[in-house]
Amino acid sequence: MIETGSSNGAHGQDATGSPATAGENSLESVHTSSLSEILSNQSISLCISTYQAGKVIIARVDDGVTNTHFRAFKKPMGVTASADRLILGTQGQIFDLRNVPSAAQKIEPEGKHTAAYMPRAVYNTGDIDIHEMAIIEDEVIFVNTRFSCLCRLNSKYSFEPIWKPDFISAYDPRDRCHLNGLAVRDHKVRYVSALGTSDEPGGWRNNKTSGGVVIDILENKIIRDGLSMPHSPRWYADNLWYLESGKGDVVACNPDTGEEILRLNLPGFTRGLDFFDHYAFVGTSQVRETAVFSDLEITRNTPVRESGVWVLDIRTKTVVAFLKFTGGVREIFAVSVLPHAFPDIGSEDENLMLGTFVVPDECLANVATVDQSWKPVEKYFEAGNEHFNSGDLKTAMASYRDALAVDENYLPARYNLGLALLRDGSLAEARNTLNDVVRREAGHFEALYQLGNIAAQESQTQQCIAYFRQALKIRPQFVAAEEALNKALKYASEQPQ
């Protein structure tokens, strides 16, 4: 059974802020009911990156239907994740996000989210075209495609090279072999994939249809060659897996004998692979007829190609579920299983980030219990400003009074309360409030100016002139006060003596 999934942006809608509609630029998807059953039964979700759409997508089950939840990043590509950490490679940066369970409880609707990956650090790498990544014993290893090498994340450097193929003679930002994928075996990077073995800038393009290789970096030898654009090597269930993208194939083999255990064709350019239990999750892309993707077996023989994720049962070697994007997303780069049923990425919620704290255990043992209704004075003040600007003066005044109840000396709230009272027509209370501001801060020229306006409304011409002159004495370039003073002086001169 195929179902239409909900595609949500940061606030329960698509990225434009309005309900998504079918079409090339909308973010729409369909999926089989079996996908929702698999994700739900395993209590997992999928993290999917698409640099073409500039999104990281979390596919998760919501009320029995797979929801595709979008977060915006600039050219997101490589993803590697665990229960408590998510590493994301984007254009020129690596994001290190950590799961903060307490933050998950604050995301609306409260109590529904099972994880919240919050930004902990961002590293600037320069434009090195980061491809696949891995977390190994708390270290982040990634493929630096432009410089044809494997790197370790090191805060001292843009990148720290730890390995390059023997056929690459120098570090060069011109992408000599298009190194793109890595596989971890026995807690070490063991295999990598590349689209060619060229040592010339961009040389891999000359034989992209059959020049791809998988390299065993421990044995320092090429173990699979003649491949059509290989991607996403993985070690799983005692076999080497990789995607032969130029053919749309998923392959599993014995790396020692070369025997193929599985070869399965999918309707798209295969890229992005992860496993959970007896399931393989494979990304596919539509592929546009560009110079890079032209003259491949898949572009010649498969006119209708899909963008999405296909689920294989590796025991039966069959497709058992899929998620297809029908608008907006034309390519997939990475697919990573998240061991959480309903996670989110908290990178777009400023209030959530500002109000989330992660501290050492010894500090946590001495942290006071805070009443959840408590707010700092600034929050009441900011709420008052929002209501003031939207024209809701009554609620704005209530928020400013709440701020003053927390801190009676918080002058911005007292002054803005005076403005709100003035705009609401409560001149006597506004005058008392603004006079209180001036008593607390003699140099508050804005309060003096507003007191002048109140005096003008009450036809107290000489008093309003005195207020405007006092404001200008403190701030000589106060244009509004100068104009108001000139107007008041002209009015006074025209009155009969």
TrEMBL record:
Start and end residues of each stretch annotated as Disordered: 1-28
Pfam families: DUF4915, TPR_11, TPR_8
Stored InterPro entries: CHP03032 (IPR017481), OGT (IPR037919), Quino_amine_DH_bsu (IPR011044), TPR-like_helical_dom_sf (IPR011990), TPR_rpt (IPR019734)
Assigned keywords, A-Z: TPR repeat
Mapped TPR repeat ranges: 377-410, 445-478
Gene3D superfamilies for this protein: Tetratricopeptide repeat domain
Domain Conserved hypothetical protein CHP03032, residue spans: 34-340
PANTHER family noted in UniProt: UDP-N-ACETYLGLUCOSAMINE--PEPTIDE N-ACETYLGLUCOSAMINYLTRANSFERASE 110 KDA SUBUNIT
NCBIfam families xrefs: TIGR03032 family protein
Protein name, entry field: TIGR03032 family protein
Biological source species: Candidatus Seongchinamella marina
